[in-house]
Amino acid sequence: MSQFAFKQFSVTQHHAAMKVSTDGILLGAWVPLAKANRIVDVGTGTGLIALMCKQRSPTSKVHAVELDDDALKDAEFNIKHSPWPDIELHRCAIQEFDSELRFDLMISNPPYFNASLKGENQARNRARHTDSLSFDALLDAFEKFTTDTGQLAVILPYQESLLFCQLAKARNWFLVSSCAIKTTPSKSYSRRLLLIGKQNIAQPSDEQSLVIYDVDNQYTNDFVSLCHEFYLKM
User: Any idea where the Methyltransferase small domain is (predicted)?
Assistant: First the structure.
């Protein structure tokens, strides 16, 4: 599908290796934005998550960082033709990003394959494998570009999320909240949404779970409640 239509914007994806996915939609819909006046989306791809954040929090200053030239073509088009053309798009890797701004929230649907076999599509390899953005590099960027109370939101396969939490804990950061995702009730957890904070909070971390499809292969009430502001047919 070369275009994905949402309620308030559309995502053209002619060029980007990674298309609109349920992972990205889950992250953009789930991440808390109440205190996020300045947001940076790392590896924005088509611009999906940056656009979702801007829809949910129109007064927030949203920046989007992307290194892949093909993905940038789509992101630039999608932002320009959205209700929020003021989203600032940066053409670089986050390791080369240069900004005096300090963000309240860094959000990323990051590459997560460490050792799996790669295909012939090099752009897709960059988008899916940690060669271009390791977990440590993302955490380095989080440390550098966010405020002292900054937070980092990501979605990862469940097992990789455990490693990511260990790496964050080693830097004396804290798991603020998480949500484990199942595709159907009978399957194991396949994804996990994480919110990492630089400062500890008084209450224990909020551990949630969500199932996307029920036994009749229909969206669950929880999934509809989370994503109904975006999907056209919800």
Answer: 32-115
Whether the Cβ atoms of residue 34 and residue 58 lie closer than 8 Å to each other: no
Dihedral over alpha carbons 70, 75, 77, 82 (to 10 degrees): 170
Q: What is the pLDDT of residues 51-61, one digit of tens each?
A: 999 999 999 99
Cα of 208 vs its chain's centroid, Å: 17
Angle between helices 135-145 and 158-170 (to 10 degrees): 50
Condensed to tens digits (0 to 9), the pLDDT of residues 65-89 reads 999 999 999 999 999 999 999 999 9
> CA 234 to CA 225: how far, in whole Å?
9
Q: Is 222 helix (H, G, I), strand (E, B) or coil?
A: helix
- Tokens in use for 141? 């960027």
Tokens of 49: 């998550």
Q: What angle do CA 48, 127, 119 make, to 5 degrees?
A: 135
Other Cβ atoms less than 10 A from the Cβ of 61: the count is: 17
57 Cβ partners below 8 Å, 6+ apart? 33, 36, 39
Q: Which residues pair with 208 in a beta bridge?
A: 179
Considering only CA atoms, which of 32, 80, 8 is closest in space to residue 195?
32
Closest Cα partner for 50 from 10, 79, 71, 8? 79
